[in-house]
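User: I've been trying to design a sequence by hand for this structure and keep getting stuck. Would you show me what you'd pick, starting by listing the structure so we're on the same page?

Assistant: Good idea, let's start from the same input. This is the structure you sent:
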């Protein structure tokens, strides 16, 4: 049967990008989409309705991408009716909705509908989030190459996702006994690094048939079947992990730090720097002028990201600890991040008074700009991968309080492998928080600063014209074109 596409006989490269519907992955995927658009390749960006609405409300993404005639948004229903993006505890609700509602529609689009070989401009390469294991099967059915995009950290992807079947077979999961400091030795490359407590949060389950573990096992089996894997890191940072991962996934494209590579490729050296936002929350930019009033490296930045939540008790312990350290602080307190809600009547009056003098609290902030600001001396973070690699890029040491998924692994690598911060996992005590802040800001400041600066320099080198990430992006673009040229007309 002949193709029904326009133009010459040759099919034009056309990439479909399909992220999971959460702030971090969508943010990364939009940056990847723009980098691919710059090469002249057509890109269709598929969002589920749940995330697309807030994205349009709070960003200029439509006008920004209007400069690319080779870009378009498509949406697919997901059956979710939340007005704003859900927190981490709603992760499986969202993924189940995608599986039930979006997946069959997406399959039809790819196999026989608007994105299929029967359409005027067929998709020639799919780049789904690696979490969408069904996309690999649909790619096989539609005869379309698939390059998975993984937005969790490579250290977690390798140790807890791709090796999850290994951990289960070795009897490391579920845990036997209560010693969380026991080393996990069945994962190649991390035998002397990861303790039980450093594995992804879902590994602590006593039941290996939970929906999350079943989802990750599916991903572990589908990712190696794809034609490639894109990760948001740079070769030098994750060399140990990437070397091991290539045994399962030979074709890996490390193109991070993605936010910095995006900025470097988008903004010519002679042109003024432009600010881009893909945030699904409204950013409060007044915090930048507040930072301007502070001396270099004096402010602690506190944020638990776009999905994590905390109890009021945890909030107060961290708040007291940061305040008692004596440093000024900028705190991002995302709406909906405090379990059970929050108001000032729950806070001791002296803490509120101290915060008026020393602190700035906002609902959401332009994080990349905050971390790049000279006043920031440390980042108290949930250790999400976007936050971690943004902090590494700017040479900002971290105090890690991980919440879920890859964050437990990331915080261990921050302290033990990259030596750029302190891991506070499994504790929430004001004295420990105060000590960790003082250690990073004062006691061990020079040690952390030197290590952070070394990694920042390597990160900057990786996105230079001949740097590893720039070269990997160029290879990705070339491979998309060659995959397209080898597609056989049906």
């Amino acid at each position: 049967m002949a193709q029904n596409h326009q133009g010459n006989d040759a099919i034009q490269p056309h990439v479909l990008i399909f992220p999971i519907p959460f702030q971090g992955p969508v943010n990364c995927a939009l940056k990847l989409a723009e980098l691919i658009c710059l090469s002249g390749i057509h890109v269709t960006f598929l969002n589920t309705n749940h995330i697309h609405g807030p994205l349009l409300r709070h960003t200029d993404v439509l006008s920004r991408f209007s400069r690319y005639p080779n870009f378009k948004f498509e949406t697919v229903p997901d059956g979710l009716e939340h007005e704003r993006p859900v927190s981490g505890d709603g992760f499986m609700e969202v993924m189940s909705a995608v599986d039930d509602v979006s997946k069959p529609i997406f399959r039809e689009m790819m196999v026989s509908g608007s994105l299929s070989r029967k359409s005027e401009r067929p998709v020639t390469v799919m780049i789904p989030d690696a979490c969408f294991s069904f996309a690999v099967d649909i790619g096989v059915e539609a005869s379309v190459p698939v390059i998975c995009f993984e937005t969790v950290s490579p250290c977690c992807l390798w140790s807890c996702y791709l090796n999850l079947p290994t951990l289960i077979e070795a009897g490391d999961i579920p845990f036997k006994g209560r010693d969380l400091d026991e080393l996990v030795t069945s994962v190649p490359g991390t035998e002397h690094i990861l303790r039980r407590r450093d594995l992804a949060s879902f590994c602590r389950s006593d039941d290996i048939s939970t929906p999350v573990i079943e989802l990750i096992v599916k991903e572990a089996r589908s990712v190696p079947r794809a034609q490639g894997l894109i990760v948001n890191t740079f070769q030098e940072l994750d060399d140990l992990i990437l070397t091991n991962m290539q045994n399962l996934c030979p074709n890996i494209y490390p193109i991070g730090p993605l936010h910095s590579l995006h900025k470097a490729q988008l903004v010519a050296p002679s042109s003024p720097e432009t600010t881009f936002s893909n945030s699904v929350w409204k950013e409060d930019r007044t915090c930048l002028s507040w930072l301007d009033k502070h001396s270099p490296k004096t402010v602690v930045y506190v944020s638990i990201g776009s999905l994590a939540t905390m109890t009021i008790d945890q909030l107060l312990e961290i708040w007291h600890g940061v305040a008692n350290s004596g440093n000024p602080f900028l705190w991002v307190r995302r709406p909906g991040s405090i379990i059970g809600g929050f108001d000032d009547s729950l806070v001791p009056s002296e803490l509120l008074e101290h915060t008026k003098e020393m602190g700035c609290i906002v609902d959401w902030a332009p994080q990349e700009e905050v971390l790049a600001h000279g006043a920031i001396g440390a980042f108290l973070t949930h250790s999400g991968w976007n936050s971690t690699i943004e902090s590494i890029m700017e040479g900002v040491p971290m105090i890690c309080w991980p919440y879920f998924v890859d964050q437990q692994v990331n915080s261990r690598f921050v302290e033990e492998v990259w030596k750029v911060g302190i891991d506070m996992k499994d504790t929430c005590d004001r004295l420990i928080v105060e000590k960790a802040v003082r250690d990073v800001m004062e006691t061990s400041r020079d040690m952390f600063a030197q290590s952070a600066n070394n990694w920042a320099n390597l990160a900057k080198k990786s996105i230079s014209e001949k740097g590893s990430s720039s070269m990997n992006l160029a290879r990705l673009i070339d491979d998309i074109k060659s995959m397209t040229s080898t597609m056989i007309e049906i």
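That's my pick for every position. To get oriented when you compare it with your attempt: Confidence is low (pLDDT under 50) at residues 1-8. Residues 193 and 416 are 7 Å apart (CA to CA).
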